Amino acid sequence: MELTDERLIEMYRRMLRIRHFDEAVEKLAGRGLVPGAAHLTIGQEAEVVGACMAVRADDYMVGNHRSHGHPIGKGADLKRLMAELMGKSTGVNRGKGGSMHLADFSVGSLGESSIVGSGIPVATGAALAAQLSGDGRVSLCFFGDGASNEGAFHEALNLAAIWRLPAVYVCENNQYAVTTPAREAVSVAHVADRAAAYGMPGATVDGQDPVAVFEAVGAAVGRARAGEGPSLVEAETYRFHEHALGLRIPASYRSEEELGSWLERDPVPSFARRLIERGVLDRERAERVEQEVRAEVEQAVEFAEQSAFPDPAEAFEGLYSPRVPAAVPAARAAHEHEGAHHA
After folding, report:
1. What is the DSSP letter of 65?
2. Model confidence over 121-140: pLDDT tens digits?
3. What separation, in Å, do the N-terminal and C-terminal C-alpha atoms of the chain show?
């Protein structure tokens, strides 16, 4: 996919959507309107959008507990997404998924989970389904640096490599698994170095640069569609807030200097300046895009607040798939028919 000027502007628009959406979520959570835990994508917008814009709208995607940004990056409707976070019946999962367990099939989002690393096998299964159906789809999988230490990571990547599945694994290395520094928990300098163990390409890119992520993931997507198998892309990024909203950490685990150095590389204003310098945007249009996004988020909040909660009678709906009658072998069917005849 080529990054035309209009697509670069769309890239900026989606980054703004994630930023303002999560800022709104922070305020709503403070008012007690977002039940359960919420993990913000603020600071990681570039890697999310860069990766999502490198795939097709119908490609599969699996996220993780830091889940709002992924569907937004892939073009999800903000109204239904916000309603889901507030537990409303108009949400993408009718209010039953919430912040950490949402899915939006309309943009290929198969689901997100609070269990660290659990989405990696799911994305691998989706890649297998795409391979077997021959529909040309790719499975995009997001996970964090902490998840790269889970057994599911090894098992899934090993299997994907053996079967040459069309999967692209994107490690969002935001430097910390809650409070544990990646440098103290990962045995290699870069998570992408582990790709060599599975015989697949690996690349580490600047996660604060959406274009760099787009190019790296785009190359991996091209290999996947060509039947050349999976790839591992590590986007080095940083979360500006705590691991989760309301999480009280008793001791400091990152320095003011470290946080300050990453804040200076805030991907949203940095990308705006870059587009202005390149002549893709002028300041007037940049401000207009931001105003439009703010209005979208305000409308999403209003829609969610005015939506109704699910009826309690729906509590057990959607928990189980319909039973599929098992095929009865011909010999068994004949035997049962004969027995019924004699009876």
Report:
1. S
2. 999 999 999 999 999 999 99
3. 68
* Cβ proximity of 168 and 140 under 8 Å: yes
Q: At a CB cut-off of 8 Å and minimum separation 6, what does 71 contact? A: 61, 63, 81, 92, 102, 104, 107, 109
Average pLDDT estimate for 63-77? 95
Delineate the domains of the chain, giving CATH numbers in brackets. 5-342 (3.40.50.970)
CA–CA gap between residue 307 and residue 151 (Å, rounded): 41
Identify residue 205 by its one-letter amino acid code.
V
Helix 5-30 to helix 78-85 angle (10° resolution) is: 20
- Give me the DSSP letters along 283-330: HHHHHHHHHHHHHHHHHHHHHHHHSPPPPGGGTTTTSSPPPPPPPPPH
Sign of the CA dihedral running 52, 56, 57, 58: negative
The residue to which tokens 């060509």 are assigned: 226
Using DSSP's 3-state secondary structure scheme, residue 178 falls into: coil
Q: What is the DSSP letter of 336?
A: H
Cα gap 283→33, rounded to integer Å: 35
Instruction: Report the chain's mean pLDDT, rounded to a whole number.
Output: 93
* Distance, CA of 259 to CA of 304 (rounded, Å): 33
The pTM of this model reads 0.91
